[in-house]
């Protein structure tokens, strides 16, 4: 099933590239899944890690994920999908959307929180390395988010906190 999820994600993200590195987008979900595999996990969690951005970033619907992979994986992907990106909320600015998403993610399952921590870890240094201006805003958002993810895996939680602190240190050093 993990191989099927990886192949599904690879096809869904086929034409997409990472914003800063221009590498194929699929490398991000692969790294997230690899991080999830380093801690206590289930096959559903690994599959959801591969699929975590599919509904947000491609035409694939959550119903398709449920049909293809079943309730457990589908529910995890649904938890990981930013509901404010799934539905157009033009009356919310970024700050308001992100705050609402933090509130929503506070109620996610432990499994989804663990996957989200891996996602934060993989994204943080990439953003700091490549977009210093956006990184300052992003790090504030991630600090708020990681606080509500404390019920996820403890090792990934600590690693996410460390990545954010390291990213802030890098930004401070570059300002001086």
Automatic annotation (TrEMBL):
UniProt cross-references to Pfam families, sorted A to Z: HD_4
UniProt cross-references to CDD domains, sorted A to Z: HDc (cd00077)
Classification via InterPro entries: HD/PDEase_dom, MESH1
Domain HD/PDEase: 21-133
One function term, GO molecular function aspect: guanosine-3',5'-bis(diphosphate) 3'-diphosphatase activity
This protein's name: HD domain-containing protein
């Amino acid at each position: 099933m993990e191989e099927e999820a990886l192949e599904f994600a690879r096809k869904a993200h086929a034409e997409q590239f990472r914003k800063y590195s221009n590498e194929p987008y699929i490398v991000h979900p692969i790294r997230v899944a690899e991080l999830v595999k380093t801690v206590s996990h289930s096959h559903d969690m690994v599959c959801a890690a591969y699929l975590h951005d599919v509904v947000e970033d491609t035409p694939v619907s959550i119903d398709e994920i449920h049909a293809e992979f079943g309730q457990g994986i589908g529910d995890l992907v649904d938890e990981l999908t930013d509901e404010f990106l799934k539905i157009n909320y033009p009356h919310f600015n970024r700050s308001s959307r992100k705050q609402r998403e933090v509130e929503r993610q506070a109620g996610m399952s432990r499994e989804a929180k663990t996957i989200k921590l891996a996602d934060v870890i993989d994204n943080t240094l990439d953003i700091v390395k490549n977009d210093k201006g956006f990184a300052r805003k992003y790090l504030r958002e991630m600090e708020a988010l990681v606080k509500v993810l404390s019920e996820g895996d403890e090792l990934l939680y600590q690693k996410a906190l460390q990545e954010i602190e390291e990213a802030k240190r890098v930004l401070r050093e570059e300002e001086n």
